Fold each of these.
Amino acid sequence: MAKYLLLKHYRGAPSGLNDVPMDQWTPQEISDHIQYMNDFAARLEESGEYVDGQALAPEGTFVRYDGEGRPPVTDGPFAETKDLIAGWMAIDVDSYERAVELAGELSAAPGAGGKPIHEWLELRPFLTAPPTITE
Amino acid sequence: MDEHLLRSLTPGVLGILVRRGADFSAAEDAVQEALIEAVRVWPEDPPRDPRAWLVTVAWRRFLDATRSDSARRRREDLVDDEPAPGVGPGVDDTLQLYFLCAHPSLTPSSAVALTLRAVGGLTTRQIARAYLVPEATMAQRISRAKRTVSGVAFDQPGDVATVLRVLYLVFNEGYSGDVDLADEAIRLTRQLAAVIDHPEVAGLLALMLLHHARRTARTAPDGSLVTLAEQDRRLWDTASIAEGVAILQVALARDRLGEFQAQAAIAALHADAPTAGETDWVQVVEWYDELVRLTGSPVVRLNRAVAVGEADGPRAGLAALAPLDEALPRHAAVAAYLHERDGDLPTAARLYAEGARQASNPAERDHLTRQAARLNARRGPPSEAGRPVGTPTPRRAPPGS
């Protein structure tokens, strides 16, 4: 088993093929999209491959240490930041091929006009615990 | 086996152990073990007196734990001198437990966790699932909370307001796994109302019942939010409304108004309207005025602006909104609604989309995105709004254990 992260971006990923902003869809198209995502997650729970899914607010804060006795410095959000994560789904699957297959399915969620959004999802393997047998 | 009945015995049993000289933390662990044992044994072999059974088993567990710790020898001598079981029910004990678990030295999340376990009788695993944190994290939070209150005398009088804040949090926030936190909050508040006569306890219980009554109407079959105005009022639980209203009326008659009674009064006015159009908005605004006076909360002022918009028209609502900080949660959503009612659809659509970006939960985000989409579909493109934001949605913890 290997865990993978399916990362969804607000920005930073290449544009999908059907890249219409969501508030330009019809309300029904939005409902269909959400239904597709929920069904997808439910199917993975069913198959024993679902680990976690979370959504992130679009705006956050950058924070860094500013020296002994001083409060941390905060800054941002930066409009020019290229990469903005919208959320993720973590899956636990038997192979890389299966992870790609599932990411492809997720990317086919319907959007404007009821057509797949062909959104680019980033697939990242989790680093694992070291194996017990090494020779 | 009735799990609610079992868990309702928790505070009384715990109180007895503490009265007999067990320290709170050890007694709480022993009661948890007794509850788990009860779940295992009772279905096959139900006890004649469930409460006495729990006291006996919990006390034995406490003694075992104490004996196994030689450093606690002295306490063992103490407890061996204690009288045999059979101490009467502890109304005061139950109240003291609420106070202890909501002690001001605890953070809100610790107080919530400790209340659910020590008063509610939930297991650490159930609480962890309800708040989507690992079980080990919740176990640590609870044991730290117990350490924090270990020096507090059990008889020390507490502040009922802190208890109410904790119960309100349980009702209002959380994800729910196999435990229904709203039900649990109502059960705990009902139990509190039985041991203390206080108009704000009644007010909070009424508030919970009145909101809980709308629960099935609040979400569509596909999981999307249904606004108060659009809810099918036939789905409202009339028994729960009737109980809430009756409790509220008794409380209000005592003329010691507090914020929970005022909030419940607003909920009761909504419950009272056969259709959204028949809502008595003038009275709703008056209650919001009371709430502003009681709390001074900007969030209350924001909600008041909506009510003013209904009572005196959208322009009046926008005027009430004008002095409020735009950074307030839901400010954009409220502004969008008032602008839509005022006929300014482009502004409303833009603000709905902005509200969606600021939403703190996916249900609200998706609802506001739909509102923006609805207006945009009516007047056609374009807008400068962002990429699809509808996904992914966090999943609830799977049911069962």
Amino acid sequence: MLFLQDAPANTLNYMIAGYVVIFGVMLLYLISLSVRRRNLSQDLEILEDQDKE
Amino acid sequence: MQTKPRWLSVLDIITVILLIAATAMVFFYAPTEAVMGQVQRVFYFHVAAGWVGMLAFLVAAIAGVAYLAKGNRKWDIVGLSAIEIGIVFAFINIVTGSIWARPIWNTWWTWDPRLTTATVMELIYVAYLMLRQGIEDPDRRARFGAVYAIVGFLSVPLTFFSARLFRTIHPVVIGSNEAGAQGQFDMTSLMLQTFMFSLITFSFIFADLLWHRIRLGQLAEKVEQLRLKMVD
């Protein structure tokens, strides 16, 4: 019945949910990149130290 | 330790500024749609995320061709990086579409051709990541990845054209349109400007993330080579 009404439908909550997903997923991916980079850098340091010995 | 290239820092800054501007346009510049109300604002980033997903899978297919032609492992890193980013943005596209559909179609999900092909496309690329994990030999893994990225790309045009080729309730944003599509709307010029700006912004986000992810891939490659060297 959404298309028979005069005023716009009250869909604010859905819009908020949509943007929480958009920014939330992007933020999680950025965190994932950062954590993986930190772990790999630590691994590289350890391996380089072992390689020197 | 890799030092961060200066141009990557510049790209980071430009991307953040563009994202802030695009978000401001979505909430303060674009008018509220007359029928759907506020949820229509999801559309700008929903389509842009879908665009990035498809663009990323195209880059991966091109990288696959380049790997098979040259045999240089850097193309494998590019392909893997693009696919990972594509999966993230295709996921955003599917989930936000579902959120938009709830008040507009009165359901979270329906097995409409567009929704189905988009989901199949996403699963094809998730399977790529899972299957790569099972291959130990780096060269074999890269060769497999290249072929898979090329063959898997068939799902992208199928998804893009599904709303045009098949009977669907999903609105067609660009080009021809089924008049009966539930949720179809005419864009005003302010909406169109916001939409185009969002597409450009998300293209920058893709380029920025791809650069970061490629650098991560290079670091992982370095660690893997050092590990293999120590095992030998």
